[in-house]
Amino acid sequence: MGALAGGAGEERVPAATPRPAARRRVSPKVRRRRLAAAGVVAVVVTLALLPQPRAVSAPAQLSTDATYVVQPGDTLWTIATRVDPTGDPRPLVARLYAETGTYAIVPGERIRIP
Predict the structure, then answer these.
(1) Which range of residues forms the domain containing residue 73?
(2) Beta carbons of 66 and 110 less than 8 angstroms apart
């Protein structure tokens, strides 16, 4: 009788908690689009973080054992400016003169670039 009348031995049932709203299922088409967009973003970020090759605008450096074939109209000065267009050509002209022994060069002549 005590249990039916709400006496001390009555069990309390917790109040029903509201259930979260059911999530709509995403269609496979939308899922593929999102996956493709995420892939594109990942590729762009990866490419942005990779070390980029530097554009080399350095002069055409010849190795120490390089030879130059004199073309018509060449002078020691023009050869020196071709070898190092950004630098002062005078030291290289002096070395080329020491190598050839003269300022007069002939087309077809091979000059070792020091």
Answers:
(1) 67-112
(2) no
